[in-house]
Amino acid sequence: MTRHAEAGVLVVGSGIAGLTAALHAAAGGCRVTLVTKDVLEHANTRFAQGGIAGVTFEDDRTEDHVRDTLVAGAGLSDERAVRVLVEEGPGRIAELVELGVAFDREPDGSFTKGLEAAHSYPRVLHSGGDATGSAIEGALVARLRESGIRVIEHAFLVDLIVEGGRVTGAELRVDDTRRERIAADAVVLATGGAGQLFSHTTNPAVATGDGIAAALRAGAAVADLEFVQFHPTVLAVGEAFLVSEAVRGEGAILIDDSGRRFAFDDHPDGELAPRDVVARAIARAMDAQAGRPVRLDATALGADFLARRFPTIDRAVRERGLDWAREPIPVTPAAHYLMGGIVTDLDGRTTLPGLYAVGEAARTGVHGANRLASNSLLEGAVFGARAGEAIDADAASRLWPVPAVGASLAATTPSPAAPGAASVAPFSRAALQELLWEDAGLVRTAERLRSATAVLAAWREQSPKPRTQAELEDANLLLVAAHLVAGALARGDSIGAHYRADAVTPVLEGALAC
Ligand code: SIN
């Protein structure tokens, strides 16, 4: 045992960021418990298809990945965070390889290159064609199980315990039956995003913003929730299923009902323009054809290539009775990723002593107003490791420092319900998701956001005290929704993924060019 073996660390969440933080903290000698609301493997990481971006090829350049990330962030990224991400990324990718993640390779042994939107170089590594997240999750879970780290599955985060201005543990609901309190010197929130806020999402059912909501209730700074990335292409038949941007990276095109390739109307990069640009172009094309989905034409890639390069998508497409080697498939945009979250420094420290946040739950400053494709797995690996190591060092010093970030970044506070507010339809998860999709989705206006604000305030006021896991999740979604809508209302300009049709100043060329 090392000098601070007594430091108890509680990690909440089991995606790439949480698993990495847990393993690094344990490697430093901390006594780690990891809790997750489902089973270990059921994190959003598992669904990541495209891959992990990183400068691993000799003719790629760190400066180019930095620039691509900053341009995608539309001027709102923190350059220091971006440099940490890009400079430390290759080392963390090498650790994943050591852990057994088999990134796809060419016959000569070199990594296979993948291209996604807004990358100036095909630097995206993938595994199993389009099963990168699953390969990474599998390897990290296997290592965690060998590590002796205590794991509690089906343990839902009810709230953080704050004593004397410091986080000292968490209250959990285990198996949706009993409450348990776990004391900890440090708590790491790795609870992912909140895709379940929207009626169309690529996220699994577990993505209900639990960590962000708990951090808000505990008084930690949370920022940039208005920046939601909508993925352009999700299968519009059956349950929503992501069709990776890598498919367009390999040459698939988007067409409307008349067969017209419309993506170049908005941007010279066409289908490989930034996600927000392509997603809005699709939404507009759908509006013009009475809401019918547009189609992704991958027929030129051929059946063999599609099955080999995209086996997971190929299976999902065929399960829905479609043959994408012969005919274009219907696709529609869906909520995909939350750029904002719990404000952290470069080591995952939040503004509350003893509380850390990593992965999609965190707002490290890397993504600004829009995330570059395949930077999310990289962020989880890089900042998960940094947080794990920082906790180890903070525990040794017993200082639990608080970063000088956050005050200027705190989320915009939602308005309370207006007295005598108009009656609203009863709350349901589906009604909330529809509200956010319609009023705070791809295209926003002050009028729709104000109307959403009133409905959310009324629902929050009427909510009974949550008891079951589903009710606790609903309360979390409502809280995050209220902050998201308040942020979107306060930001009158369009920037990155936040698009205001009633923008007071026009969209900057730089933001569009990302
Ligand atoms: C995709 O494969 O299109 C998603 C990858 C990402 O979100 O970065």
Major sheet summary line: 5 strands, parallel
Helix content: 25-40%
Strand arrangement across the biggest beta sheet? 5-2-1-9-17
- Which spans of ≥5 residues are poorly predicted at pLDDT below 50? 1-6, 507-514
The mean pLDDT is: 93
* Percentage of residues in strands: 15-25%
- Structure ligands: succinic acid
Counting helices, strands and paired strands, the structural category is alpha/beta
Distance between the termini: 49 Å
Q: What does the radius of gyration come to?
A: 22 Å
By DSSP, the count of extended strands is 18
Total DSSP helices = 14
Q: What general outline do the C-alpha atoms trace?
A: globular
Walk me through the structure:
Helix 3 packs across helix 10, helix 8 (303-309) packs across helix 9 and helix 11 (429-439) packs antiparallel against helix 12 (446-462). This protein has helices at residues 16-27, 62-72, 79-99, 132-147, 210-218, 245-249, 275-288, 303-309, 311-319, 375-397, 429-439, 446-462, 469-490, 509-512, and strands at 8-12, 31-35, 52-53, 124-125, 150-152, 155-163, 166-174, 178-183, 186-189, 222-223, 228-235, 241-242, 253-255, 294-297, 329-338, 341-343, 355-357, 362-363. The protein is an alpha/beta fold. The longest helix is centred in the last third of the chain and has 23 residues, at 375-397. It has 14 helices and 18 strands. The chain is globular and about 65 Å long. The structure holds succinic acid (SIN). The site of succinic acid has 10 residues, from helix 6. Succinic acid is lined by residues 48-50, 244-246, 337, 373-374, 376.
